[in-house]
Amino acid sequence: MRNKINVIFSITLVILQVLCFSFVSNLKMTNACQITVPKKEIKKSELTSAQSMVTMDASTGRILYSHEENKRLPMASTTKILTAIVAIENSKNLDEKLVIPKQAVGIEGSSIYLRTGEHLSLRELLYGLMLRSGNDSAVAIAVLVGGSLENFVKMMNDYCTKLELENTHIVTVNGLHDENHYTSAHDLAKITAYAMKNETFANLVKTKEKTIDNELGKKEKVRYLKNKNRLLNMVEGADGVKTGYTTKAGRCFVGSATRNGMQVICVVLNCVPMFEDTASLIEKAFSEFEMVKLFSKGDITNFEIKNKKSQIVPVKIEKDIVYPLSKRERQKVTAQIELTQNIKFPHSEETPIGEVKVCLENNLIFSEKLYTINIEKQEGFEDALKKILKVF
């Protein structure tokens, strides 16, 4: 017998409360879905002059709009998003005062003018890194956290492997140009979505102004840092993240904004009007998409299993399933349920019994395991699932 039985039914799913409103969607059971996620490819001339662009929902990773999203390109100081999150996650105490190494002094490009032997905390260096894009801050962080530039670069590339980035390779910690230093708009969006889950990082990149120590300064004993990210004052809910520029990379930017439970990340690479294009893309995303709760954690479905003794089996889903959908798409969501056939009895509680797959226009958008709540002892399992008595 087959290991799994596809059970296909026509059902109606009442979609639960979605943010400020609720709606009813006909969720029909379909044949197997293709394992792709629908996205909208935007022509370069429509909304952006960027050489490459991605606008993405942070929580699900769904690409809402894109142009050349997998093209490998230099990304300038947007590299520092990865520098920052690697440093944050590999430091025990961000507030301990550390000695600035000579190696970090006199770095070309944007700088916070570090001096050999002065004392700053990693947190202060991170503000210098992300608000003022200090190339010297990046080197100081790398040496202090990684022990050397070479080791910290390895740590950054290890993160790229962990995040399954196929079009990213790190050579420099600050984004200064190197032919072998590159990313893609999609990879950079994934890096950012990962980083924004970290509270320290998220608070850092939405900060508009900050003062840090200037211990060896001749006049001022503090450095005044103002965030270069103009999006923070342009878009409602803007909360990050990083600018970048080199002659080779052009103007690069990663922006983020959060409204009504939806966080939109926009990456533009080599884009002259980077703030304006990012603002337009983010506003378009919020106007066309909303987060829709398809299933709620703990929702219970009863199945009737036909064996020697007909039995009702209650199963549940263990987390909320929320997905960004347009109004048009809400009527085109379908689902397929697969139950594992080789279930053995007696059966313990909280055991996976199958999964629900949800598709949008025949494209798989997510799958989630179904778990038993309680199954009493039975002698065997002969027939497949025949009927859904109650739906999510």
Number of helices: 8
> What fraction of the residues are assigned to beta strands by DSSP?
25-35%
List unreliable stretches of 5+ residues: 1-32, 375-392
Helix content, binned percent: 10-25%
Please explain how this structure is put together.
The protein is of the alpha+beta class and 392 residues long. The chain folds into two domains: 4-37 and 293-388, D-Ala-D-Ala carboxypeptidase, C-terminal domain (Peptidoglycan synthesis regulatory factor (PBP3), Domain 2, Sandwich), CATH 2.60.410; 50-272, Beta-lactamase. Helices cover 21% and strands 30% of the residues. The chain has eight helices and 20 strands. It has helices at 44-47, 80-89, 122-130, 135-146, 149-162, 185-196, 199-205, 274-288; strands at 4-7, 28-29, 40-41, 52-57, 63-67, 97-99, 119-121, 209-213, 222-226, 238-246, 250-259, 262-269, 290-295, 300-305, 311-317, 321-325, 333-340, 352-360, 363-372, 385-388. The strands form five sheets. Strands 1, 2, 14, 15, 17, 18, 19 and 20 form an eight-stranded mixed sheet that branches. Strand 8 (209-213) and strand 9 (222-226) form a beta hairpin. Helix 2 runs antiparallel to helix 3 (122-130) and helix 2 (80-89) packs parallel to helix 4 (135-146). The longest helix is centred in the last third of the chain and has 15 residues, at 274-288. The chain is globular and about 80 Å long.
